[in-house]
Amino acid sequence: MGVERKKYCTYGEWKASKTDTYRQVTDSSTGEVIAEVPCCTREEVEEAIASAYEAFPAWSAMSLSQRTQMMFKWRNILIDHLEELTLLCAKELGKTLSEARGDVLKAIEPTEHACSLPTLIQGDGSLQVTTGFDTTTYRVPLGVVAGIVPFNFPVMIPWGWMVPLAIATGNTVVLKASSETPLTAMRIMELFYDEGGFPKGVVNLVTCSRKEAEIFLEDKRVKAVTFVGTTEVGKHIYSVAASNGKRVQAQCEAKNHALVLEDADLENTVNAVINSTYGCAGMRCMALPVIVVQETIADKFVALLKEKAMKLKVGCAYDADTKLGPVVSATHKENVCRWIQKGIDEGAELVLDGRDISVEGYEKGFFIGPTIFDHVKPGMTVGEREIFGPVTLIKRVKSFEEGISLMNKNPFANGSVIFTQNGYYARQFEFLTDGGMVGINVGIPVPSAYFPFSGNKDSFFGDLHVLGKDGVRFYTRAKTVTRHWYDEAAIQRKKEVDTWEGTVERL
User: Fold this and answer.
1) Distance in angstroms (rounded) separating the CA atoms of residues 143 and 57
2) What span, in angstroms and rounded, lies between the C-alpha atoms of 418 and 425?
3) Fewest C-beta atoms under 10 Å: which of 75, 296, 352, 419?
């Protein structure tokens, strides 16, 4: 029996693509091809935009309370299918079951945030701005929004960061799902219409190449583009889409650093680093790949980190005992291994090498074990560029001041962390760091959906971040209304008074 060829979704219906080009989706733990997805044609991408465009008038005219009630229902559907979606995510991406479950939960949380929209979307108003005039500002939807999705969070990013606030505020959406990990997003798309009962065309889904995705940046019907991916592509999307008058959110690469001071709780610090660095096999922009350690404790830190890393069970993503699953594909594994070799070539000290690991019964899976480099010096690209794998880089510094200076020289500023028991240094770090999301003794400083995911520098291009109040503002525009009402009787009385005053003045 052949591998299933997936379809694309427009007007609430699944359709077979007319393309001749398909991409394979693999089970990351076994290497087995489990599906093929189309590289949709230009006409099919335009069809998805047309579907969203035609659905917008009726959807945006629906009352806020109706849309909110549908979001409550949708939130419960996601909870009902939590375990099904968890397993599917683990298979196609390689996240462990707990990590994949977290991916789904991180889509449910923003959906709950969207349920509070009747409060979040309230505008401002004033009576008697000038005599007899009142002014009110409303937030109204934009129209069609395009979401361009990466491979590493196939649930949270399209169905958490993009869809909930976009549709709750009255917009319609076209998702370009990742061709590497589209299956979970496609299954949720099925649930959206089959169980969610949403009007046809409110959300549409295609898989395509970058060439076809350029349409989103140019088509006048698309009013906003939200993107997650590499900095190179993010800059391109931001510049082209913005030049065409579109709003843009471009969440890009990261190279998050943590500063570990000599007074830090070493045991808890290393545990936090293990979770942050090796969770999701390092394939997340909020991983913690670079640890800047004060020299006085560096040897102890590295020894304990290696000890704990070696105890991680590397294995099949959907084995409940696995602590470190595979990376997403054979190509991605090769790329991470090239980075490890580059670190060796640049002169960093390889403390732990995860390249040759093999998992019994899953020999064709895309596994890389925990990898640690020590004595990573300034100028080594392995310590400056995003590797997106389970690789930890240790940089040694003498002091807090040297550490914060080193960290801020990095071009990326998604997140930054300090581990210390010193309140003064913690506050100084919070004040001085370039990181947009800051952790104080917190390994993964990702805020809840009620706050923005606020990367800086080359980690983000745009004005309004995803989630929080920023997300509501991104998906809406201001409409300011000034009112003045005429009372005919009052006008007549004023005329009579003016006439009387004029008569008195002449006398």
Assistant:
1) 8
2) 9
3) 296
For residues 274-299, give the mean pLDDT. Answer: 97
Do residues 475 and 117 make contact, with C-beta atoms less than 8 angstroms apart? no
Q: What is the 3-state secondary structure (H, E, C) of 286-309?
A: CCCCEEEEEHHHHHHHHHHHHHHH
Separation of alpha carbons 209 and 232, rounded Å: 16
Mean pLDDT is lowest, of 145-154, 363-372, 494-503, for 494-503
In this structure, are residues 258 and 290 in contact, taking their beta carbons and an 8 Å threshold?
yes
The pair of structure tokens assigned to 44 is: 């099919």
Q: Which residues contact 30 (CB under 8 A, 6 or more apart)?
A: 316, 362, 364, 365
Helices (H) and strands (E) in the chain, counts: 17, 22
Count of C-beta atoms within a 10 Å radius of residue 326 = 31
User: pLDDT over 90 for what percent of the chain?
Assistant: 95
Taking the C-alpha atoms of residue 289 and residue 139, their distance in angstroms, rounded to an integer, is 40
Catalytic residue among 40, 208, 285, 337: 285
Question: Is 208 annotated as catalytic?
Answer: no
Mean pLDDT, the chain, integer: 96
- Report the alpha-carbon distance of residue 154 to residue 103 in Å, rounded: 8
